Amino acid sequence: GTLQINYSCSEKNSLQLTVTNAIGQTVYIETQQSFSGEYRKEIDMSKHSGGIYSREIIFGTERRTRKIILD
């Protein structure tokens, strides 16, 4: 399947997106310096088995984490 990430911010700062599996292994990571505006990303997860994943976005000092269930 495909994991879709959408994030919006108005100020410029560093952005890091990390996707980890249930045992804490990083399956995707991306960092952008001086980011602002609309962030849209489609991540191909077809190589990974189904289960629970965690998506974390760090923007400056703000951290947002969400659980994702992949069938």
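(ticket continues) Second input and output from the same batch:
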Amino acid sequence: GETTATVTSSVDERADGGRALVTCRDPYPCDFWLGWFEGLGASFGRALTIGHRGAACKSMGKAECVYRLSW
């Protein structure tokens, strides 16, 4: 059977930058998303600061990972 994947985000854009909270509930490992976020920032010419809640992590057996991005 197929695995359902859900990615949700909330974004707060300001003149001096912005931030986003992204929740990934999917079969992809943390490193996949960390690399994807870095590439996304680079494609827009922005360096992202990426925070990852280790306690709420798929690598720890949880159902999702939560990332805090700022730029």
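Agent notes: The first strand starts at residue 6 and ends at 14. The chain has a mean pLDDT of 86. Closing as not reproducible unless the customer responds.
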